[in-house]
Design a protein that fits this description.
Length: 229
């Protein structure tokens, strides 16, 4: 479902700042510089950026806002929690800031381990517009999902998504115990900036629960809850 994609040409948009992926913002640059440290090789920088975003923001599917400014990379860099979309925006922006062509990718996924609480909140075990980043390194696009921080995975027996610069980091179909976990159902394609209006319009049509009804970011998760996207 995810064939290897090579790129013969590089679009300027994959390195340029946009409204949501404001990779030229000082806050994003500070974040990216701190994350890559002394690395100068694009592959190593990509690996370090992935791990910084994966573990630097604790995964929280309840921390959803409908305010566009909360989805700018410069705002996300100051947060300590996030869900797949903002984490992907940050990773994409940090990569562009370090000269790595990057864009956003989206897919609809079914979470076979959705908790009762999350199922009640979402009204479905299908997660439309699951976000990930696509980074172009040495002529190959890598698809990177940095959603689940390592502490969450280890606590609940979910396989940790790793990226070493040689293969994609996509959601695992099974957990550590062999139970079905993530199923990629539909690809929505690649985007140079966050399709905010289209995404939330689809949320409103697909989900009956009115997700993210509050304008401010808040978390309804309780410590110890099994919250998986």
């Amino acid at each position: 479902m995810f064939p290897t994609i090579t790129a013969m040409e590089t679009s300027p948009a994959w390195l340029a700042p946009s409204w949501f992926i404001d990779s030229d913002h000082d806050v994003v640059e500070d974040y990216a510089v701190a994350a890559v440290g002394d690395a100068t090789d694009p592959r190593e920088m990509a690996v370090r950026l992935f791990h910084a975003v994966r573990d630097g923001l604790r995964y929280d599917p309840y921390a959803m806002s409908r305010e566009p400014r909360h989805y700018r990379a410069s705002a996300i860099a100051a947060m300590d929690t996030g869900w797949c979309v903002p984490k992907s925006v940050l990773l994409t922006a940090a990569a562009r800031n370090r000269g790595i062509p990057a864009r956003l990718g989206f897919a609809d996924v079914r979470n076979h381990l959705t908790s009762e609480k999350l199922l009640e909140y979402m009204g479905s075990d299908m997660f439309i517009w699951h976000g990930y980043s696509e980074l172009l390194v040495d002529g190959r696009w890598f698809k990177l999902s940095a959603a689940f921080n390592i502490d969450l995975c280890e606590r609940f027996g979910v396989k940790v998504l790793e990226f070493d610069g040689t293969d994609d980091a996509l959601m695992h179909p099974f957990d550590v115990a062999g139970n079905r976990h993530m199923e990629y159902v539909k690809q929505r394609g690649s985007f140079d900036d966050l399709p905010f209006d289209e995404m939330f319009a689809d949320f409103d049509e697909f989900y009956p629960s009115g997700m993210g009804a509050n304008d401010e970011v808040s978390s309804a998760a309780q410590a110890g809850d099994r919250v998986f996207e």
